[in-house]
Amino acid sequence: MKSYFSTSIPTFCLLSIMAITSGITRATKSDSEWLAAEAKALMETGWWSNYSRAENHCTWPGIRCNAGSVVEIDLGGHGLNGSITPQIGALSELQILNLSWNSLTALGLLTNLTHLKKLMTLNLRYCDLSGPIPPHIGKLESMVDLDLSQNGLVGPIPSSVSSLTNLSSLFLQSNQLNGSIPEDIGGLTNLVELDLSSNRLSGHIPSSLGQLSGQIPSSLGQLTKLESLYLHHNQINSFIPHEIERLKDLKYLDLSNNWFIGPIPSSTFTGNKDLCGSIQGFHPCPSSPNVNRERNSKVVKHNLLIVILVPTLLFFVSTFVLVTFILFRRYRAKTLKSDSSPTKNGDLFTIWNFDGKIAFEDIIKATEDFDIKYCIGTGGYGSVYRAVLPSGKVIALKKLHRLEAEQPAYDTSFRNEIKFLAEIRHKNIIKLHGFCLHNRCMFLIYEYMENGSLFYALSIDDEAVELDWTKRVNIVKGVAHALSYMHHDCNLPIVHRDISSNNILLNSELEAFIADFGTARLLDPDSSNRTVIVGTYGYIAPGSAPSLSSYLFYLVLSILSFCCLFVSNYILE
Predict the structure, then answer these.
(1) So where does ATP get bound (predicted)?
(2) How far apart are CA 128 and CA 148, in angstroms?
(3) Is the pTM of this model over 0.70?
(4) Which candidate, 510, 513, 429, 428, places its Cα nearest to that of 472?
(5) Using CA atoms, how far apart are residues 533 and 497, in angstroms rounded to an integer?
(6) What is the spatial distance between Cα 505 and Cα 514, in angstroms, rounded to a whole number?
(7) 450, 477, 465, 490: which is closest to 558 by C-alpha?
């Protein structure tokens, strides 16, 4: 017997040591495998792709461990994209998960978090989440702080939220949640903060939220615009705070069915608007039918007032607009009428017979304020400029020189040209598009003649070659037709008094046009009046004042110089 025990004891001790050693080995191996599994789960999220699995994951950014296990992940504002990966669900010791201010578009994968039985804080604020809140969120039994605010969540608030009995704060504001607030949400007895603002919720606030207890806070007196205060059927066990007397706009107050103690001071209620009841100093409240009748009467009066005021206001506004429009039209017509009549020193800018609009600013811009580089010639009393309008139309501008504009004779010539060309309508007489009579500058707007004057065409060999005899005869005929029209078809004959090759212009088709009517005048056959002799040197009839007979001399001389390629100066010499 003794021998048996002496042999068994060492054997037993050896077996015990082996068993303990084996258990420790298995425990060490189990812990090692667990840490490796955590590191693998974290790596598979893709959020720590720059780190090696061989490294201690507890040192990675945003991770806090306790006894080698991950208990907190804080990656707020790290620019994460995609979804909440299912690997997070393997972190069974996780207590805090903050992924706020990222772009995690899918909330449905919260299913992966339901295995986190120890998760106490979940912050997904500003994560661009969309879709409904999954019902299985109620499986996070240890949840204390839940923040899903500032996202695009839709649908109703799941009733499973009421299963989070440890919940202290719930933030769902600034989403697109609809439906009603779950009735069971009042069962969250530990709830301290609840924010459901900026959503599309409808219906009534659940009565279960009204099971209040404790004291009425004195800060309630700061709600100076409060009109209704209902605190009935609660368990409020305190004095009625004196701060309530600051609620000057309070109309309805109900503190019934509570555990209030102490007196009701009259100063707490006096001075308020429309308070009534059986309390001393208050007038009795009207019965319900009277109250309804009074409300209905106010509604009817309000609607009647709207029906009367709106049409009346519309009538007066319409009348005012109509009268203003009529007065404006009259003022504009009067202004146009006054502007259309010439004035000696006024501002006059008139355009007619033109397929577009010309503004004074366009003229100045097109010629760069009558720069010399746009000057294409000089007439009897001014310079001629070429201008291209914004529409692409090319026009000719005859501008009276500033010094000449101050001389009455040139001013008269300028007005004469406007007067005669405004009345003349002939295909061989230059067309006047408009004019500007202003103290700053005076100019005429003409149709542009591409080939310049006849004098220019005859004085350049290349241009003269193009004028064969047929074209020259047509030019003479055109000038003759224009002169015949001026002498015989006008009410009073118009004497040009300066027909020369300089004043005969040619267009692109080499058709002739008479221009420069600055020296023209009406000829009254019954009048013996004669003016001074005017005209271009070399084209004036010898010893003759302006008349129809002397006018023929101008034409014959122009024809001779035209046909013989001589200028008038050579003939006279």
Answers:
(1) 398
(2) 10
(3) no
(4) 510
(5) 9
(6) 6
(7) 477
DSSP for 484-521?
A: HIIIIISSS-EE-S--SGGGEEE-TT--EEE---TT-E
58 near 83, Cβ under 8 Å?
Answer: no
Cβ contact 428:512 at 8 Å: yes
Pick from 428, 433, 427: nearest CA to 353: 433
With a CB cutoff of 8 Å and minimum separation 6, the contacts of 560 are 566, 571
Q: What is the residue whose two structure tokens read 């001629």?
A: 384
Catalytic option among 254, 498, 516, 526: 498
Q: How many CB atoms lie within 10 A of CB 526?
A: 4
459: amino acid identity, one letter? S
Whether 301 has a binding-site annotation, put simply, is no
Contact 387, 366 (CB under 8 A): yes
Q: What is the DSSP string of 154-170?
A: EEPPPGGGGG-TT--EE
Annotation marks residue 498 as catalytic: yes
Strands 130-132 and 152-155: parallel
DSSP string, 216-277: --GGGGG-TT--EEE--SSEE-SPPPGGGGG-TT--EEE--SS---S---GGGTTT-SS-BS
3-class secondary structure, 123:
strand
Q: What is the maximum span of the chain, computed from C-alpha positions, in angstroms?
A: 180
Orientation of helix 548-564 relative to helix 469-484, angle to 10°: 170
Look at residues 269, 277, 234 and name the one whose alpha carbon lies nearest to residue 255.
Answer: 234
Beta bridge partners of 72: 64, 96
